[in-house]
Design brief:
This protein has 13 helices and 13 strands. The protein has 354 residues and is α/β, with parallel strands linked by helices.
Length: 354
């Protein structure tokens, strides 16, 4: 059974800072979301705030308003990514209120709620849970890379990006859902805290894993998924970008997880890396990034576009131009879905089984 939950967004529901909340609003197999707490969007439907789609998810101005509604939630989920991943005083106050009201806490920030003595003690007194999703695994539970990835015979598709915060996780879920709808057994490997919150069964939190174990955890997650589920295809959620100077990532997906196929996510209007606009490093062209991916040993089979801040007409023009220039499909996952890519992956599945 799903656990019931309410999401706290602290007035940021309509911003990119609430991407954890956005993911959970779009879908989760782990939680039954009963509402969102956001002072600025109170009285609205969370789905309509996110993307104009009504999802019967009411937004409450305060936790007290949610409690007054009569709905019973077990967990309060922190749905925002704060600057530096810290818990500011304003959020700490909300978490104390949540604990006082009887909610256990789900936290995906780098700053662990359990490391805050006042909150940890309050949870202990109330008999409530604090789940810090980003807490590293114990040493005994970590894996070194050992080459068992070669036992995985199905296609492994890395969903990489030209920058962070582009929607790679969302696109990965959409790809999995499309392949399942087409009759295939598709699985997702999560690599971030929101992927776990959405209910993905296999994976690890990339940015909380000791560097020596990243390749092994990546390999083990894919291998375990293959051994247990026997999928036709596996999609691996990407993180950051190969050349993002604040956190380069992507090579492990191709080399350690042996993903020889890539779907590349890109925002055509973003010229410099998110939050690094001051730094003299432009985001490379899509063609240049595809060439680098090829050097690492993988083929980019499709481009998926994040079309934030552009009109539908502009988005479709971008997609058409990229298809013409690159010779691969370019799709708009949120606006038009990814069914156009199903034949691409069907071909890979048939080749793997031949």
């Amino acid at each position: 059974m799903k656990s019931t939950a309410v999401i706290i967004t602290g007035g940021y529901l309509d911003t990119i800072n609430a991407k954890t909340a956005h993911g959970l609003i779009r879908g989760t197999e782990r939680f039954d979301i009963l509402g969102i707490v956001d002072s600025k969007a109170a009285g609205k439907d969370a789905g309509e705030v996110l993307d104009g789609k009504h999802r019967n998810l009411p937004v409450y101005g305060t936790l007290h308003d949610f409690v007054k509604s009569g709905k019973k939630a077990k967990y309060a989920v922190i749905g925002v990514a704060t600057k530096g991943g810290v818990i500011p005083e304003s959020l700490s106050v909300l978490l104390a209120e949540a604990l006082e009201s009887g909610f256990s806490i789900i936290n995906g920030l780098h700053d662990y709620v359990s490391d805050h003595p006042d909150l940890a003690e309050l949870a202990r007194k109330k008999g409530l849970e604090i789940i810090d999703v980003r807490k590293p695994k114990k040493f005994k539970d970590l894996h070194f890379w050992n080459g068992k990835i070669k036992e995985v015979k199905c296609p492994k598709v890395a969903v990489l990006g030209t920058d962070c915060a582009l929607g790679k996780r969302t696109t990965t879920r959409i790809l999995v859902e499309a392949m399942r709808k087409a009759g295939y057994k598709a699985e997702m490997i999560y690599t971030g805290q929101t992927g776990w919150m959405q209910g993905a069964k296999y994976g690890f939190v990339f940015d909380s894993t000791l560097n020596d174990f990243i390749s092994g955890e990546m390999e083990h997650a894919v291998w375990e998924c293959y051994q247990n589920e026997k999928p036709d295809i596996i999609f691996i959620e990407g993180q950051s970008a190969l050349r993002n100077p604040s956190g380069p990532a992507g090579a492990e997906w191709i080399i350690s997880a042996d993903a020889n196929v890539v779907v590349l996510q890109h925002n055509p209007t973003r010229k410099r890396y998110k939050d690094l606009e001051f730094y003299p490093a432009d985001i490379p062209s899509v063609k240049d990034e595809i060439d680098l991916i090829k050097i690492y040993g993988a083929q980019t089979v499709a481009l998926t576009l994040n079309t934030a801040k552009v009109s539908p007409e502009e988005a479709r023009k971008f997609a058409g131009d990229f298809e013409k220039d690159l010779g691969i499909p370019a799709v708009l996952p949120l606006e038009e879905g990814v069914e156009k890519l199903v034949p691409v992956f069907e071909k890979l599945i048939k080749q793997a089984k031949a």
